[in-house]
Amino acid sequence: MTLFAIFFGVIACVILAAYFTNPFNRFTIIRLTYRAEMKRGAMRAIDNNHLLKVRQSRARKWFAVLKNGVHIVNSRWHRSPASSSRTVDEIIEDIYALRFNPKKLLLTSGDHFSALFVRNLGVFYYPTLDTHIPSTQQQWHDRQMVYMQTLAYALGTFDKQTELTTTIVPTGPRSATCVNFYAYPSDTLYGMLYALAALLDKETGRPLQYGAVSRPLDTVPAAQVLQDTYKTTLAGHYHRYRNKVYDENRGLVSTAVRMSGAKDITKRNSAFYDNVVFWKTTELAMKLDLVAHDQVFLDTLKTHIISTFWLEDEGYFLEDLSREGRVNKYYSSDWLIVLATGFLTPEKSDEIGYFSRSVEYIRRMEIDRPFAIKYQHETRAHRQFAAVRMVVASYGGDSIWSFWGMEYIKVLLALHRETSQEWYLEEADYHIDKYEAMMLKYGGFPELYDAQGNMMQTTLYRSVRQTGWVIGFDQVRSLRQNIS
Q1: DSSP bridge pairs for 169
Q2: Separation between Cα atoms, residue 20 and residue 345, nearest integer Å
Q3: What is the pLDDT of residues 375-398, one digit of tens each?
Q4: Which distant-in-sequence residues (6+ apart) come within 8 Å of 140 by Cβ?
Q5: Is the CB of residue 244 less than 8 Å from the CB of residue 258?
Q6: Residue 19 burial (CB < 10 Å; 0-12/13-18/19+)?
Q7: Inter-CA distances, 475 with 8, 334, 375, 413, 470, Å
Q8: What is the largest CA-CA distance in the chain?
Q9: Whole-angstrom distance, CA of residue 200 vs CA of residue 202
């Protein structure tokens, strides 16, 4: 047998294994170890997380990485189905049925994202348990169940894995492999703590106060069991995370630790995002009684982060503390994480200026055009990891990200409510209309668009078309409807 034949034989095996270990495929071998069910309006759980195995051999790790590549190529050249519906409401319903499905293992963005990027729980899917979003009873039950199951899967995995990673990859019927894309995670622990707090009704899923509660939360008793089961594990992870990333002398995230956050494709040192996430992770650890409460520490940290990163003359937050970032005064739209985390709020008179001035900068640089919002006005491909730079150079640059676009619209709506200035509302409506037009054009809610506003597509990559991030758009619509 020639080396050529051996090579293609190995590739064929990897492709087949990738198919059968994709939990969203029809003939998957992956099984749920934790299942949430709704019985007479109450949630109960079938917990077999003790059967979950974490496999961390070198071969398993390589397979975990390669199978993600297989899914990306498959999604680009084979399947990225569009909704057949013809109205925005119907498209949203189709996406909910597709992505928030408790019969599946995980809540993910869809298409090539068959693994769990744990940050999803606290970042891209943080509105999942917003009780104010109008929904059917079944949709509400499904959202609660799949969110609970996804958290339980992450907790069960990291109960057997001392080192946090960005990603949990299903690699066997009841086994998982933990890998990093592309560095140590900034927001994995945050994602788990946020989800647990939300399921316990200690976080609302709402970045702003609005409207009346639409549905009661049914998850508290089951979430309390998860907290009791994994409290010691989570406390250990918090202490290791803090020891690794926090510079006690500088009072900020260390510049010596490379971290992957929501903008994981970009190489940064002590990013504003990472510091805000560290602050929120610590607050959640205190709220969940994993560590002793220390409000002085939180207040001091918050003040230090703001004073370090806020550029008063420019009117925005500095992206990171790398030499290049400081010299060039780099901006990045993931500063909007301040809204979801509650680090800052437009509802406070002493904090509203950070939002209004940032909006001024965004509009001046046309970062919100043709619609909201790009990470920055330029590509900066050299700052990205090599694999991303080769496949889609603008991914973490001047591409338009629908999730951050929703956070930007929420800021505009909040600024209108706080200032009564009509142009904020007009801008919000402009972006909402644009997104509705794109949903009808592409038959879904694409993950990202290129700088011209077309659904992102390169030779090797295509945006997720029907991403569950539509939950953020639904939250935006709910906010808009509550503005008189």
Answers
A1: 177
A2: 45
A3: 999 989 899 888 888 888 888 889
A4: 214, 215
A5: no
A6: middle
A7: 47, 19, 21, 12, 9
A8: 75
A9: 5
